Amino acid sequence: MRFNRAISPIKVLSFDLDDTLYNNHPIILGAIGAMQTYLQSIPQWAAQEDDYWLACRQYIGNTQPHLQSDVTQWRKVALEYGLSQLDLTQEEIERHTQLAYQAFADARSQITVATSVLTLLDKLAQKYTLIAITNGNVEVDKFNLSGVFERVYLAGPDGQAKPAEDLFRRACQDLNVQPQQILHIGDSLDTDVQGANLAGCHSTWLNNQGVNYKYQGLADIEICDIHQLSTLC
Q1: Which residues have a Cβ under 8 Å from the Cβ of 209 and sit 6 or more positions away?
Q2: d(CA 100, CA 108)
Q3: Which sequence ranges form a coiled-coil region, renumbered to this chain (predicted)?
Q4: Which domain range does residue 48 map to?
Q5: Is 18 a catalytic residue?
Q6: What is the pLDDT of residues 125-155, one digit of tens each?
């Protein structure tokens, strides 16, 4: 654990979820695969080029950029758009949109957080209020993080995606704390660290992804393993 700046007394620990508390890469690939398997059962969709889904998603992202802060709505709207370009009735479009997204969502929550991480969170919860702030759309109540967090803030329903300040401000308001009383932990310099810094919160960068980020600012704390947070207990 490396401290780049001194931090003031903390009341709240805020966690990013995907790739911070578990490896999300195989999970998201499995969820996309489940969605694609369903879509390939629709003859009109199966007849399209292999990159049809990506083209639909990109089109909606470009034409309705506000949806990029709500990945659930972005995916649903892209599905509906893609299906609407095929020879389908409106009832079929709506039904396939719902079922294709449900296939994605069900697989998206097939997560098991390591026992050691759950033990760490339990110890931290004895001293701090734990919350989650995520740009993703995972449903925490469907796997073994259920009940761990006092609150879970989702980009889209609860405000603009990190690095926007919305979710951090919402947490401060709901929990009646000052920004500097929140320490946010996440794997991304661009979203987690930049967002926390912009909001006036403290930040911890979990540097374990081997990714080159655009943001040049420093996290207050840098770790390479989530278990290093045990020093905060």
Answers
A1: 19, 187, 188
A2: 12
A3: none
A4: 26-108
A5: no
A6: 999 999 999 999 899 999 999 999 999 999 9
